[in-house]
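From the shared-data thread, chain only:
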Amino acid sequence: MKLHPEQQPDELYLGNIPPEDLWKSYWKTSRLGSNPLRSDGTPYTGGDLKPWFIKRSEVEAAVAREQAKGQDAFDFKIRAYTEMLEDGGIAGFRCIPATPTP
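Structure, as tokens:
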């Protein structure tokens, strides 16, 4: 599911962050977009923020690593990462309207 207009099909959207904070992320595939948006889809103009994306494959690999450690589906990381994969990112940061499911 696409949560931001700049999101590529193989990416997850994590919200807006200040560009100078990107180095703090442990996600190696992090990419910044150009146009930060509010959750209602309007442009964000209050400060220096950029939309933040990571590759789906990196999150899929993180789930596999946690499962290999013997963690079950109720483990917090596995649940959080699986929800990110299902929702296209962190759904609370959706910037485009959800398409109703028929």
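The chain has two helices and three strands.
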